[in-house]
Design a protein that fits this description.
Keywords: Signal. This protein has 289 residues and is of the alpha+beta class. It has 2 domains: 146 residues, Roll (Nuclear Transport Factor 2, Chain: A), CATH 3.10.450; 113 residues, Roll (Nuclear Transport Factor 2, Chain: A). 28% of the residues lie in helices and 31% in strands. It is globular.
């Protein structure tokens, strides 16, 4: 199912990236190059083992395995190659106004031997991308959740308009401190109730995506409805954080300690009207489970 869907996506990106460049003051080119980085990674993964593909493209990315975060280089350095192919494709993405930090997300499926086999596992992934010193997109986090198969293929939805690219400097040190304070306040409220934790910081409905282990993604109104039925507490412990040069997009990454089996979380935040709002979450295991 994924290969026929991946080929048109590769064609779309080829059109994006080879079209005659025009003066553009938006982050459109940055966005397209970030998505292209994910598609290139996925195309390689369709032809190579998970160990090979992840070791190559995620060497500096943080990943959760066996109860702790490790970089791809550490996790896959000594792993023997195993049969199977992991297929995935991005269907949604977000980017900072500075064009240097963003994320891609979409469905994945695992085939036990080759792509000719029927898939035996399904889920959704999230990759965090950041431009390195050379100006290339590099994965800094990769993870996701597993769940039942989609009833029908999910469609990619790409922006028709892109925000203007920020050209002025921003006090990122101060904004990062406000992001950390927002995360700390969220974690404190979560010890009482997830519903209480989320309500003050939910982003715009159309941008909201919550990924929970064992469940299909909650998007938009579905995400808000989930929050209303999440009275249980949860414990979050921050490990890493980052912020864009524009100071408008940030992430917090850490451990979820609310179950006997240690889990993890990723929060992606967008600064809106001087307030950090949550637009994307990966949470495993599911505290409501």
């Amino acid at each position: 199912m994924f290969l026929p869907l991946l080929i048109p996506l590769l064609g779309l990106l080829t059109g994006w990236l080879t079209a005659t460049p025009k003066p553009d003051k938006t982050v459109k080119t940055d966005f397209q190059q970030m998505v292209a980085a994910e598609v290139t990674f996925a195309a390689y993964g369709s032809q190579h083992s998970v160990q090979d593909a992840f070791g190559k493209f995620l060497s500096r990315a943080w990943m959760f395995s066996e109860g702790q975060f490790q970089t791809g280089a550490t996790l896959y350095a000594n792993q023997p190659e195993k049969p199977g192919r992991l297929l995935w494709r991005p269907i949604h993405a977000g980017i900072a106004a500075s064009g240097d930090l963003g994320f891609t997300t979409g469905p994945w499926e695992f085939h036990p031997v080759s792509t000719d086999d029927k898939p035996v596992a399904f889920g959704d992934f999230v990759t965090l991308w950041q431009k390195n010193s050379a100006g290339d997109w590099e994965a800094i986090y990769d993870g996701g959740v597993s769940h039942a198969a989609y009833v029908k293929p999910t469609k990619a939805v790409w922006p028709t308009n892109y925000p203007a690219k920020l050209q002025t400097s921003t006090d990122t040190a101060r904004l990062r401190q406000t992001l950390l304070a927002t995360e700390a306040a969220f974690a404190q409220r979560a010890r009482l109730s997830l519903r209480q934790a989320y309500k003050p910081v939910l982003g715009a409905t159309e941008d909201l995506r919550l990924l929970r282990e064992g469940q299909l993604p909650y998007i938009g109104n579905g995400a808000r409805a989930l929050i209303e039925t999440s009275p249980r507490p949860a414990q979050f412990s921050l490990l890493r954080s980052g912020i864009s040069a524009a100071g408008d997009l940030g992430y917090t990454l850490g451990y979820q300690e609310s179950t006997p089996k240690r889990g993890f979380y990723l929060h992606v935040w967008r600064l809106t009207d001087a307030k950090w709002l949550l637009i994307l979450e990966v949470l495993s295991p599911n505290p409501a489970g």
